Amino acid sequence: MEAKLRLAILDMNDGKPNQGMRCIRDITAMYSSAFDIDEFDVRSKNEIPDLEYDLYISSGGPGNPMEGDGIWDKAWYNLIGDLWEHNKVNQYEKKYVFFICHSFQMACFYFELGQLAQRKSTSFGVMPIHQTKFGEHDQIFKHLPDPLYAVDSRDFQLIQPDLEVFNEHGAKILAMEKIRTHVELERAIMAVRFSPEFVGTQFHPEADPIGMKIHFEKPEIRQKVIDNFGQKKYDVMMEHIDDPDKIELTHNTVLPYFIENALESIYATKSVLV
Q1: How far is residue 159's CA from residue 218's CA, in Å, rounded to a whole number?
Q2: DSSP state of 7
Q3: DSSP label at 204?
Q4: How many independent structural domains does the chain possess?
Q5: Do 68 and 62 touch, CB atoms closer than 8 A?
Q6: Whole-angstrom distance, CA of residue 250 vs CA of residue 191
Q7: Range of 191's domain?
Q8: What distance in Å separates the CA atoms of residue 163 and residue 246, rounded to the nearest whole number?
Q9: CATH number, domain at 102?
Q10: DSSP symbol at 59
Q11: Which regions of the chain are under pLDDT 70?
Q12: What are the pLDDT digits (tens) for 144-177?
């Protein structure tokens, strides 16, 4: 029997409970026949995987993406750098990485793709996200409508992309923040393909409608959202959660296609090497 591949989930939530990790676990569990799956608590336990995994998913998390304690963040950056170098020098046996929200911001900061800035106010809700011309043809995003809808929760964002650095790395902007004609602020970058193997999103593609609905119908969570963002924002968000063409479609598309494309590439490589 052929040995399974290995998948590492990097929990970046600093020990704080959240729905995102449950969603990541649920999605990756669908591929348990192909992968042995291990989880690492990067921030609160300083756990970090080695280079022996085939696929890595690094989660969202709280706080300033440009700050760490000098231990977990250094280890995380070292891992990403080592995986990047591995792919540069190995024609075969590529490593695949997906970055979500906080991890996406850290990756953009590490690769110096542009200005990582704090927002004037928190962006929160189920938001429309527009694809670029690269996103329209990307092997993941081409399966989604324009705009796609996803859960957005951020205090920081990538703006002012350094296109020279993008070109140097071969990176592509796949999606941008919603168009706001009434606001004279730069639109944030919402998704990047750093390389054929590295992809990241500012939004939360793992979010599922069932978990979101349960979470935001809790009285204390509902009241917190209304206090911070207003009743209208809450009502619109709950309507979008119930729409199968919005976060449910994104949930069923982005991470599953990333994993399936990685599997296809890995198995194609194995057949060449046999």
Answers
A1: 34
A2: E
A3: B
A4: 1
A5: no
A6: 13
A7: 5-119+129-209+249-273
A8: 31
A9: 3.40.50.880
A10: -
A11: 1, 179-185, 271-274
A12: 999 999 998 888 999 999 999 999 999 999 999 9
